[in-house]
Amino acid sequence: MTLQTHILGYPRIGAKRQLKFAEEQYWKGEISQQQLLQQAQAVEHSNWQAQIDAGLSLLTVGDFVYYDAILTHAVRLGIIPARFATEAAKLNQLDQQFYLARGRAANCQDVAALEMTKWFDTNYHYLVPELVPQQQFKADFSELLAQVDRAKAFNTPIKVVLPGLLSFLYLSRIVATEHSSHVLPACACGNDHTSVNADPTTLQFVDALLPIYADLFDQLKARGVDYVQIDEPILVLDLAVEWQAAFERVYNVLQRRDDLGLILTSYFETLGANLNLAVNLPVAGLHIDISREKAGEFFWKKVIDQLPAHKILSIGLINGRSVWASDLLALNEIRRTAEQALGDRLWLATSCSLLHVPVDLSSEQVPADIAGKLAFARQKLDELVSLAQGRLDSKTQPTTTPDHSFALLAQSRAEPFAVRFKAQQAKLNLPLLPTTTIGSFPQTSSIRAARAAWNKGQLSDADYRAAMQKEIAYAIAQQQQLGLDVLVHGEAERTDMVEYFASLLDGFWLSKFGWVQSYGSRCVRPPIIVADIHRPQAMTVEWICYANGLTNKIVKAMLTGPVTMLNWSFPPAHRSRREVCLQLAEAIRLEVADLQDAGIAIIQIDEAAFREGLPLRKADQAEYWDWAVKSFQHCASSARVDTQIHTHMCYSDFKDCLAQISAMDADVITIETSRSGLQLLDVFQQHAYPNAVGPGVYDIHSPRTPNAAHMRQVIDKALQSIPAERLWINPDCGLKTRNWEETRAALTELVHMAKQLRAELSAQS
Known about the structure:
Elements: E1 4-6, H1 18-27, H2 33-54, E2 59-61, H3 69-76, H4 82-88, H5 93-102, E3 116-118, E4 125-127, E5 130-131, H6 142-151, E6 158-163, H7 165-170, E7 173-174, H8 206-222, E8 227-231, H9 241-254, E9 261-265, H10 275-279, E10 285-289, H11 299-306, E11 312-318, H12 328-342, E12 346-350, H13 377-389, H14 417-428, H15 445-455, H16 461-482, E13 486-488, H17 499-504, E14 506-509, E15 516-519, E16 522-524, E17 528-534, H18 541-548, E18 554-560, H19 562-567, H20 577-597, E19 602-606, H21 621-636, E20 644-649, H22 658-664, E21 668-671, H23 679-686, E22 692-695, H24 708-719, H25 740-764
Parallel strand pairs: 1-12, 2-6, 5-7, 6-8, 8-9, 9-10, 10-11, 11-12, 13-18, 18-19, 19-20, 20-21, 21-22
Antiparallel strand pairs: 3-4, 14-17, 15-16
Helix pairs in contact: 1-2, 3-5, 8-9, 12-13, 15-16, 20-21, 21-22, 24-25
């Protein structure tokens, strides 16, 4: 018997990032929309062909979108917030998606983009749909139906992917008013969505959406679709009773015909307490992710035991979030046991969508010590089919021998914040409301060209260093001209905040083409941790000292924190995250010591992903917080009392982790606030955050230029709860994705606002 095989989704960027480059050309007006569609559909076709070539039973359709699946679904449902509505009416669906995501479209007025936040515990970002209490839905799924029509040419059974009705509502938020120009959320929808108090008022839209889903199912069936994959990832969360009840009501309505099979999909965790609910929903089948099961848990056996005798069970055996080759021999034991119990009702699948791993390993030059031990998305298709067919010439996962000489008890700074801050104020002598940036400045075409030439051996090390120094000098000069108080060197020499440090630390391997989508056209290339982490030498001192010598102002050093390094890399197969994170923390601790010995007074240790790696269930979170907080404390522990430690976090939900952020004990935290409607400031106010804060005053991910008045709204809000002497002014995030024209315009407004506010506060004192 040959088992059915399928995947939950495939990377949509293209093996050579074709979609990224086409979209960016389109936004610049360099290609037409028709040319963009042609290039995108070529990637779509290639993705389908890869599934056919691998021999999968079902062709997965509908996972290909241009920016984000939740955003695409919202636009297909006609959910266009009021501030976009007038201009969006002139646009087709594709341009509407780009407009909502970027806040900018050709011949349209710039407006605030939709909030962007993390997709569960991944580094992928989704756009948060905004609903109003009187929301009207005007569904148009013509583009999805066109995808189905194109896929039919492959003459393979089709499975269409859709966001589940309830997960879509759970991940959305209701805004206070339809006419708000910059909306304030009714609930804090962050990257984890584990709160049992998730806003239940979005459930009011269930009755309006049910007939839309039912009608779409009819249209899909009429086109010959046999199965629909309904993604309901919230089934792995700690759901409140009203959401559990909603699942029963919704799926009793939707599964109304036997000739279209609904496969309910969960991933990133086991079903946990929702097991009984999930197995008894009236659908054709259920998908579970076994990659997150704890050792000895065997939760999949519980699912089999409780699954009704007529239902399909799709088991996610191939880990969709790991780049390590699957141990097919071990997985085959699960397959055999499940097949004995289920027979042809067993489907084999990836644990989740493969968009979280790089596309194809075949173009890489893999080091000998890990050769044959890796698998990217294309290779995982082959693994899946091999497992289903019993071809078990498995490449087992690598084992690593920990360096037992590396024993680390996490350290922390001895002096309390009040003592440190007083010493730092005396040393730094900064003005009230000091201005700074998060670290990076535009990665210009000249920077990229120099780096490319250097990587190809066409530019010597000395010439490359000179080229980067020229860019650093330009960034310093621009900041001085703008009037910023604390400068940065701009990170011209860094490709990525994690990749750069990984290239200088022992224990990492960097792929050449291992790109993964982070959001929209933004792609990252996560390093792979292959051994113990060691710092052979200083990594940043030379560059920062060069910048420091160009100005009399303070230059802030930029490091990436250990938790972010871990969460934005592919971890080793058989080592604890705690152990690896503390090794990274020790490397950063040594760098902090070297920087301050070189005369650097402010050191920023970015922890953008501090919240991201938190387990989805509350019962599992304490252990993570313990080692994550200790790792940050350790890497800052070498700082002297008058060395100021900053950290940066963005696009996360801080409402339930302020205690842990406080325990990190950074002297200054800079955070994203502008895109999330200032909700993070409310959280900091409610918890009386004791240290200094730099709330981001404008969204750098949108190309629109903010004005000083809009920035002032953020600071006025912050001043309600944070004393001015503990308040900094900065953008939301780094500026590497912007160009210099946009950067200068925005920072000019920022500095103007800061000087104006200082004068007002001075006059009041």
